[in-house]
From TrEMBL:
InterPro entries: Nuclease_put_TT1808 (IPR012296), Restrct_endonuc-II-like (IPR011335), Uma2 (IPR008538). Pfam families: Uma2 (PF05685). Keywords: Endonuclease, Hydrolase, Nuclease. It comes from Streptomyces gossypii. This is Uma2 family endonuclease.
Length: 183
């Protein structure tokens, strides 16, 4: 990282975010957005409920540290194996994470499909799930490759709402029939 990146990170860490908003640092850019809507929250809750608490921690509003990136994203849901991280601190290291979930919105769709896809792959997060209530589909990305802005996932599996989504790394099958759309 450069001195500019360090200054942006310091500024970001001191940022006072207004109530009802969230802020993320994505490749040196501070992105602020309004809180999520009901459809979004119900999808996140449904996904979390379908992942076993016996083996996995499922956290919302958890910032992630991505090695080598001037990024501190806050995915909609973070899933990691119990005991893989015990804190303290506000940043959970990406290498401890098994799956990250983002629920796309009209204002986040480009970041979710493009920017965060590359950031999470660069952080070597094994699985990235995009649930898109605009298009009525789920996109599961696995097998991260590459580095920096050129990082991506080698495997992409798309399922429409109503079809089950195998989350093999978690030993779960995600039922999506109750996911609502924003249409």
């Amino acid at each position: 990282m450069t001195a500019v990146d360090d200054r942006v990170i310091a500024l970001f860490e001191q940022l006072e975010v207004p109530e009802g908003y969230k802020a993320e640092l994505l490749r040196g850019e501070i992105v602020m957005m309004a809180g999520p809507d009901w459809v979004h929250n119900m999808i996140v809750q449904s996904v979390a409920d379908q992942i076993s608490r016996e083996r996995w921690d499922r956290l919302q509003t958890q910032d992630i540290a991505i090695p080598g990136e001037a990024s501190e994203p806050q995915p909609d849901l973070v899933v990691y194996e119990r005991g893989a991280f015990e804190g303290p601190g506000r940043l959970l290291p990406a290498p401890a994470v098994t799956l990250l979930l983002e629920v796309a919105s009209k204002t986040s769709v480009d970041r979710d499909y493009r920017v965060k896809r590359s950031i999470y792959a660069a952080g070597r997060v094994p699985a990235y799930l995009i649930v898109d209530p605009i298009a009525g589909r789920c996109v599961l990305l696995t097998e991260p490759t590459g580095w920096g802005e050129g990082a991506d996932y080698g495997v992409e599996r798309t399922s429409k709402f109503g079809d089950p989504v195998p989350l093999d790394l978690l030993g779960a099958i995600l039922e999506t029939s109750e996911f609502r759309t924003l249409a």
